[in-house]
Each structure stands twice: as structure tokens, then as C-alpha cells.
Design goal:
Radius of gyration: 28 Å
Strand content: under 5%
Shape: elongated
Order of helices and strands: HHHHHHHHHHHHHH
Largest sheet: none
Number of helices: 14
């Protein structure tokens, strides 16, 4: 095989494909006519064959890399989904997919919520009977502000710097939520610990503010964003428990296959959780600490948001909608 002659014969096709790809990359696939799209597909197949020949006959590293890049560019443009279709799939997931996966994994969600509430009850019980327990769960500065000053600590941290505070809250909430999920890799035990420990912390703090007659404003602050933030953590806990289930109880699957099956379900849950955390972060940064709204209004907002979330999670799957239509 005369390599130079072969390159000279094939190079016009490569340049032609490169020219078509540049047009698509700059202006989109609609910039090409139907005939040009067909031509691009044919050139892609021929360049793929040229790449295989270059690799099998060792025609040079530089030439092979150039053909690889050209082939990858063509593949991504020919087989990519239209942008509007991708957005439609995102919409379909949040409209149907997330409620469906929540309903399918409700046992894990119930277990996740139960672990947290168990921690809350135990934290409340111990903190009410033993004041020293609170000092184990909360920093001294926070305890002193509540007990000595008779004030809560949250509003002072956010008022006057709401945009920065909202961004920091979102980042922190995402970190806690994904840590809860990621800890599932420890056979689910890490997720169990995080859920239970956070419950203990909330129970101890709730006892502290109740004993100092600050329960009303405390829950008024928590209710608006907590109505979304806490369920998001419970969802993440369910996702972590799914990973733990795959590792400990793969059932009919091999452990690797179980991780794929349950891991996909967990990933869908976490994808659905992200908007909840973003909305909760905005509410916590701007609305929850605002003195312009009475605690009663904040309670009402929290209740409405929680009811809306429950209704959303109970929406029927897409197949039911199509059947009824």
C-alpha cells in the first residue's frame, strides 16, 4: 500500500467532512440541507473506515489522532439529540419520572425519615432530662445566646447579606445531602449514622429553644425552607439506603448488577432533589430570616410548600396519563 497516494486520495473527503462539521458546530444541524446531512453521514462512515485502516496498518500516530478527532466530532453531531429534545426529557423527568421513582422506592424513603425522627425523639428525650447533653450537640456560643441573651442565632447570620447567605446555604445543603447519599457506599451504615445524628442534633436544639421560650420564632424560621430541605435530606437518605441494599442484599442479582439497578434508582432520586435544595436555599436566605413576615405567615408558607411537595410526589405516572387520555 502506497501511504502517500492513499492519503492524497482520501484527504479531500476528510477536508469536506471537517468543513461540514465546522458549519454544524457554529450554526447547528439546521444550517445544512437534507442532502448535506446525508453527505455528512456517508463521509462519517468512510472516515471511520479510514481510521480503522490507519490503526491496523500503523500509518502514523499523528494521522491516527487526526482521524480519531474527526470521527469523534462527526459522531457527536450525527448521534446527538436535538437540544429541544434534551429539554423535553428533563421536563418529562421532573413531571413524571421523579414522582414515579419516589413512589417506587417509598419504603426506603419511609425508613430514611424514620431514622431521622428516631434521632429527633432520642435527642429531645436526653436533652430534656440532661442539660449536659445539649452541650455535646451545640457550640457554647449558641447555647449562651439562647440561654443568656434570650435570642436566636440564625437571623443575625443572614440579614444584610442575603445573596451571599443564600449561595452559602445552597452549597452547604448540597454538601450535606450528597454526603448523606454518598455514605451509602459504606453498606448503608454511613447514611444511617448521618440521618440519626442529624435527628439527634435537631432534637437537642429543639429542646434548647423550647426551654427558653423561643420555640415559636425558631420553628417560624425553619418551617418555610425546612418543608423542602428536610424532605430533600430524606430523599438522599433513601438513595443512600438503596446503595446499601445493593451491597448487602443484592437478592436475585449479582452484586455488580444490583449496584447498577439500585444505583440508577438512587441517581434519579438525587437528580430530582437538586431543585428542592436550590428553592430551599433561596427561601432560607431571603424569606426565613426576614422580620417583615410574621411567624404565622412563615408557618403557612411552610405548610403550603410541604403539601405541594406531597401532591407532586403522588402524581400518577406518565403511562396513566396516556391511558386516561
Amino acid at each position: 500500500m502506497n501511504v502517500k497516494r492513499w492519503i492524497a486520495r482520501r484527504e479531500p473527503s476528510w477536508k469536506q467532512l471537517d468543513s461540514l462539521l465546522k458549519t454544524v458546530e457554529k450554526r447547528g444541524i439546521r444550517a445544512l440541507s437534507a442532502e448535506q446531512v446525508k453527505q455528512m453521514a456517508g463521509l462519517y462512515r468512510s472516515v471511520s473506515a479510514d481510521l480503522a485502516r490507519s490503526q491496523s496498518r500503523n500509518l502514523g500516530k499523528t494521522l491516527t489522532q487526526q482521524l480519531q478527532q474527526l470521527t469523534l466530532r462527526a459522531y457527536s453531531q450525527i448521534y446527538q439529540k436535538p437540544r429541544h429534545q434534551s429539554w423535553q426529557e428533563v421536563w418529562r423527568f421532573y413531571r413524571y419520572g421523579f414522582p414515579e421513582i419516589v413512589q417506587r422506592t417509598w419504603v426506603y424513603l419511609a425508613l430514611s425519615t424514620g431514622l431521622f425522627l428516631l434521632g429527633v425523639l432520642i435527642g429531645w428525650w436526653y436533652a430534656w432530662g440532661d442539660p449536659d447533653f445539649i452541650s455535646l450537640m451545640a457550640p457554647p456560643s449558641l447555647i449562651a445566646k439562647v440561654q443568656e441573651d434570650g435570642e436566636l442565632w440564625m437571623g443575625d447570620l443572614l440579614l444584610g447579606k442575603e445573596p451571599v447567605g443564600a449561595a452559602e446555604i445552597m452549597t452547604n445543603n448540597l454538601a450535606v445531602t450528597f454526603r448523606t447519599f454518598g455514605a451509602g457506599i459504606l453498606a448503608g451504615l454511613g447514611t444511617v449514622f448521618i440521618l440519626f445524628f442529624n435527628g439527634l442534633l435537631i432534637g437537642a436544639i429543639a429542646t434548647l429553644v423550647t426551654q427558653n421560650n423561643l420555640a415559636g420564632p425558631f420553628w417560624g424560621f425553619v418551617a418555610p425552607h425546612g418543608s423542602l430541605e428536610l424532605p430533600a435530606i430524606f430523599f438522599a437518605g433513601a438513595a443512600g439506603l438503596l446503595i446499601g441494599r445493593a451491597l448487602l442484599f443484592p437478592g436475585q442479582y449479582r452484586r455488580g448488577d444490583a449496584l447498577k439497578v439500585y444505583g440508577l434508582q438512587a441517581a434519579k432520586i438525587m437528580f430530582g432533589v437538586i431543585p428542592l435544595l436550590v428553592i430551599a436555599g433561596i427561601i432560607e436566605g431571603f424569606f426565613s430570616p426576614s422580620p417583615l413576615f410574621a411567624d404565622g405567615v412563615k408557618y403557612l408558607v411552610g405548610l403550603v410548600l410541604f403539601i405541594a411537595l406531597v401532591i407532586y410526589c403522588l402524581l400518577p405516572p406518565e403511562t396513566s396519563q396516556k391511558t386516561s387520555a
